[in-house]
Amino acid sequence: MSKLRQSLVLILDWLGEASGCHRMKDRSFFYKGYQFPVCARCTGVFFGQLTAILLLVFKKLLSIPLSLIMLSIMGTDWCLQELGIKESNNIRRLITGFLGGLGLFSIYINIFKYILKLVKNWRLLHF
User: Fold this and answer.
1) Greatest CA span in the chain, whole angstroms?
2) Bridge partner residues of 31 (DSSP)
3) Please, which residues have CB within 8 angstroms of residue 97's CB and are 6 or more apart in sequence?
4) In the structure, how many helices (H) and strands (E) does the chain have?
5) What CA–CA distance (Å, rounded) separates 56 from 105?
6) Sorting pLDDT into bands at 50, 70 and 90, what band is 127?
7) pTM score of the predicted model
8) What pLDDT, on the 0 to 100 scale, is given for residue 1?
9) Which distant-in-sequence residues (6+ apart) come within 8 Å of 2 by Cβ?
10) Which residues, 6+ apart, have CB-to-CB distance to 100 below 8 Å?
11) Could you state, in order of their start, the residue ranges of all structural domains in the chain?
12) How far is the C-alpha of 9 from the C-alpha of 16, rounded, in Å?
């Protein structure tokens, strides 16, 4: 393995650890023998957050009710698995993580836009 590839693997590994992900092998994807730096659900969350940013760039914003539904789907999957009611699999974790990441980040964006609107209106009233 080249030095650049080794360095990249170490950086990704460190980022996975720093993210707080449990990084369990049986709940992670592998590529060419290398474990992803985060589990399947966190991989989905990451791609969901990226999608929310892309939607923002194209001025498409999900509503808060839809975002809450998406977030609750991820929470339900996690809860069912945690309680031992139904074991999830990596594809389901990826999909529900994507929905959760997209939903949560969309909520953040909505809140941020609302705060900016309040600040703008306040400045117009007071100056």
Assistant:
1) 62
2) 34
3) 40, 41, 42, 43, 44, 45, 47, 48, 74
4) 4, 2
5) 10
6) low
7) 0.83
8) 62
9) none
10) 41, 44, 45, 48, 70, 71, 73, 74, 75
11) 3-126
12) 10
